[in-house]
Amino acid sequence: MERFTGRAIILSGGEPLESIKTIEVPDHDFVIAADSGLRHARVLGLEADLIIGDMDSVEPSKLADAAARGSTIERYPTDKDRTDLELAVHAAIDRGARNITIIGAHTGRLDHLLGAIGLFASIAPKLDHLVWVDGITDVMACSPDRTTTIAGRAGDLVSLLPTGSDVRGVTTGGLHWQLADETLPAGSTRGLSNTIETPPAWVRVDDGTLLVLHERKLP
Fold this sequence. Notes:
Layout: E1 7-11, E2 30-34, H1 39-43, E3 50-53, H2 60-68, E4 72-75, H3 84-94, E5 99-103, H4 110-123, E6 129-133, E7 137-142, E8 147-150, E9 157-162, E10 167-173, E11 182-184, E12 194-195, E13 201-204, E14 210-215
Parallel strand pairs: 1-2, 1-5, 2-3, 3-4, 5-6
Antiparallel strand pairs: 6-7, 7-14, 8-13, 9-12, 9-14, 10-11, 10-13
């Protein structure tokens, strides 16, 4: 089933999705399930082209069923030095993906969550578009030379988190508290808990990587 891809979806494991019906599946060429992320495929109407990981948390019957339908399986030892999500991300990039959507929730373990955030921030500059969705919150990465659009509704919560180092030249539009060519220092909480005032909101940066967390208001 493998083919060239520019747009990939990665299904991550972890807790059940908060509101899977609100997730809009983007256009894609390739779907990768990271271990137990396979459980999301059917409810989203997707077939996994590749299932990758140590397979310690995916149901054997679902794995066998996916293989029978044509999914490629890449199995790794349990004693490995990368998470299943990192394996999936690099598998997508190795296949030429420039636009990646990760669908899934975190595992509930703080170390895995922090590691995933670090991974997310490190790969963002290598891609044209990167977003992580769980049905409630979208996490996007804003890097230099691009504008990150936040397509939400007035009142939606937006937080801006610098990763690793100071983020300079931060400029926003459509938010309640605006920034104009300003610096958000690493570790600063200044960008937390903003709201969309005039949708769609947007963010640009000149230097560094900014995580943009958009929490949607439920109807």
